[in-house]
Amino acid sequence: MKKEIQLTIDGNTIQVPEGTTILKAAESIGIKIPTICYHDYCTANALCRICVVEIEGSRTLIPSCVAKVSSDMQVKTKSERVIKSRKTILEMLVSSIDLSESPEILNMIDEYEANPSRFPDAERREHAVIDDNPMFIRDYEKCILCWRCVQVCAEDAQYTFAINFSGRGYETQINTFYEKPLPETSCVFCGQCIGVCPTGALKPKREWLLQDGYQPEEIMLLTRTQRKKKTKSSARPSSGGSHE
Length: 244
Ligand code: SF4
What we know:
Elements: E1 4-9, E2 12-17, H1 22-28, E3 52-55, E4 62-63, E5 74-76, H2 80-96, H3 103-111, E6 129-130, E7 136-138, H4 148-153, E8 163-166, E9 173-176, H5 192-196, E10 202-204, H6 205-211, H7 216-224, E11 242-243
Parallel strand pairs: 1-5
Antiparallel strand pairs: 1-2, 3-4, 3-5, 6-11, 7-10, 8-9
The protein binds iron/sulfur cluster (SF4).
């Protein structure tokens, strides 16, 4: 049996088993800490930092999804510093990424009163939609690089390793190895990456076509026969590769 650790979260003194994360300890007493990249069934990597909390004696804010509890820890989940940090993260995200299909993040922007115009000169993430297979599309303008899709494709679920990060710094994006079209990779089209994507960056192709105004019969034809997507207007030639 695991040793019990006593700590205080937002003034509540509790005991949780050793090894519990601060996020889960808070959750156990009904304190919800916001998360974006974290997913209950993926390995936590503390990439987005929205879950930071303040710990007495610590110089920096600490990501609660990975930090474990320790004896007599004093945690504040809603201090002024924490709120300011979360707000800034949200403002940076909304300044450069299309969050129009990220309802949870949009709710956080409202809740933290983040200003979407705070960084007007921020460079927007611009990518053409990648439509290279009959099953799903990749729209990396909506990608927040949360890493969930890569993890479920790898050791967290599928062990397929079809996708990973490519590029560095601002140019970082999710990609296939050597930027090959998905059908030329180890992808088995299990769809687990779509299931964990929080932003609509990965989407079933049928849903995407439906949103684009295609009729169900056309959609069935396009996705069953693997024919390339037809365009509604001649201005958008079908490429089977990228769609602007
Ligand atoms: S495609 Fe979706 S799941 Fe993958 S990193 Fe981007 S936002 Fe996360």
